[in-house]
Design a protein that fits this description.
The complex is a heterodimer. By secondary structure, chain A is of the alpha/beta class. In chain A, 38% of the residues lie in helices and 15% in strands. In chain A, the strands form three sheets. A seven-stranded mixed β-sheet of chain A has the order 2-8-7-6-5-3-4, sandwiched between helices. In chain B, 31% of the residues lie in helices and 27% in strands. Classes of the chains: A alpha/beta, B alpha+beta. At the A-B interface, helix 2 of A face helix 1 and strand 2 of B.
Chain lengths: 390, 75
């Protein structure tokens, strides 16, 4: 029995995460940022605590420049739809998840406006998912305003050279948007050192929080006056006005926040900080390299990506010759109790890049709480299936 | 405490008020989150109350930390 779907949602959660959420439901329960009674203020403090601990994790100077929301998809939509205007040009990569690609494709079409869309250049990555920063620089045009890319592929785990791209973005006076869905909590991120202007993160993966939590870090170089919120409504501030406030984070946080979820997120991030990103990373590198090596030993198993755990996250994609990914996934679950995800993983561009479109792959998403024993057990199961497929 | 003179720092939102409370607390300035007095604002949120003697220091500490202040009033 092994849970290998951590690239989608980590499980299990640390007991402190569950305890923080139960505490919120039983002892706090009120709306954050609205009334001024003790429970409302306590809820406000819990939400603020989530901002502060996320700020510590990503080295964000001002916690109030973190907009909290439902997940990284919402964060990327806010960054892209909020900042881009017709005529702007964006550089992205061929390894993006649809949470980046679909808003960009929508902006590219702008069907309702008829005024021309956003220009988009998709830089091709290698079949291992590796991005050459020089290709990004070569794609920059006079009308480019933003470079938008994932930090690591959700399909093969390959890390993209965010710090190098950050340097290029600064040299050309562009903004850099990073999708940290797969790396937040699993790989060191420093928005100042890496020159990241907009960082989308999600709570339910390697930050070990619950689903329905995430956010967007908005750096000092971002002109907040240009940022259009995704939604408008009550914020608990400026209540005398019928217009949306123009300051962070309230302008982008209309409606009551998921405070119970954020209580869990704060506990999850604290758990990550206590364990230490470097320690978590070391553990995951050991697990990942063992998995890659074991799978590569099996005849008729094709493992995708760079095959070097140091250059990727703990996510490994593979296929067995002669067996559909869907059948592999079903049999791993039913016969071996191994839970993974098969198919296209919401990332058709990435699968085209690695050559597995449209059939997809079998994806093992390892997490900090997996063990070497589980990895060995899973590799053995894959070997048995591969032998049967011959 | 009745009759004591306070300075009330108004901020743009509850998030800002909680940040202000933390920044002031770290600087050793005693303060408390209270509902915004009705005569100061029609808003529904909270503000930070400190001793009047700390009024100027509180302003400087918050400005140094980059916390935007909507206003400071004596009550």
């Amino acid at each position: 029995m092994a849970y290998f779907d951590n690239a989608a949602t980590t499980w299990p959660k640390p007991p402190a995460v569950v305890a923080a959420m139960v505490h919120f439901m039983e002892e706090v329960g009120a709306s954050p940022g609205r009334a001024a009674h003790r429970r409302a203020i306590q809820a406000g403090r819990i939400v603020y605590d989530a901002r502060e601990v996320v700020a510590e994790l990503f080295n964000v100077p001002n916690p109030l420049r973190i907009v909290l929301g439902a997940n990284v998809t919402e964060a990327l939509n806010l960054a892209l739809c909020g900042m881009l205007r017709p005529g702007d040009h964006v550089v992205t990569t061929s390894m993006e998840h649809n949470s980046m690609m679909r808003p960009l494709r929508e902006l590219e079409r702008q069907p309702e406006r008829g005024s021309g869309g956003v220009g988009l250049t998709v830089v091709q990555c290698s079949p291992e998912g590796i991005l050459d920063p020089g290709d990004v620089e070569a794609a920059i045009r006079p009308d480019t305003v933003l470079i938008a890319l994932n930090h690591a592929s959700n399909v093969v785990g390959t890390l993209l050279p965010v710090a190098d791209v950050g340097r290029i973005a600064r040299e050309h006076d562009l903004l850099l948007l990073v999708d940290a869905a797969q790396t937040g909590g699993a790989y060191p991120i420093d928005v100042q050192a890496d020159r990241i202007d907009l960082l989308g993160f999600t709570g339910h993966k390697s930050l070990y929080g619950p689903m329905g939590t995430g956010g967007l870090v908005i750096g000092e170089r971002v002109d907040v006056g240009r940022l259009r919120p995704l939604k408008r409504g009550g914020t608990g501030s400026n209540s005398e006005r019928e217009e949306q406030p123009g300051f962070l984070p309230d302008m982008c946080e209309s409606g009551t926040l998921n405070a119970v979820g954020l209580a869990g997120l704060a506990a999850g991030v604290r758990w990550v900080l206590d364990w230490g990103i470097e320690s978590i990373r070391d553990h995951e590198v050991v697990l990942t390299q063992r998995l890659i090596d074991r799978l590569c030993e099996i005849d008729d198993v094709m493992v995708y990506g760079g095959l070097d755990a140091e250059r990727q996250t703990a996510t490994v994609s593979f296929n067995i010759a002669g067996m559909e990914p869907s059948e592999v996934g079903l049999r791993l679950d039913e016969e071996y109790g191994i839970m993974c995800r098969v198919g296209l993983h919401c990332a058709p561009a990435a699968h085209r890049t690695i050559g597995t479109f449209p059939e997809g792959t079998v994806r093992f998403g390892l997490g900090a709480l997996n063990t070497l024993e589980e990895v060995d057990e899973a590799a053995k199961a894959v070997r048995q299936l591969a032998e049967e497929a011959r | 405490m009745t009759g004591e003179q306070y300075a009330v720092v108004l901020l743009y939102s509850t998030s800002h008020a909680i940040r202000a409370e933390k920044v002031l607390g770290n600087a050793g300035i005693a303060c408390k989150l209270i509902p915004v007095p009705r005569q100061l604002s029609s808003d529904c949120g909270v503000c930070v109350r400190a001793g009047q003697a700390d009024r100027q220091r509180a302003r400087h500490v918050l400005e140094d930390a980059g916390v935007e202040i909507e206003g400071i009033h004596d009550i």
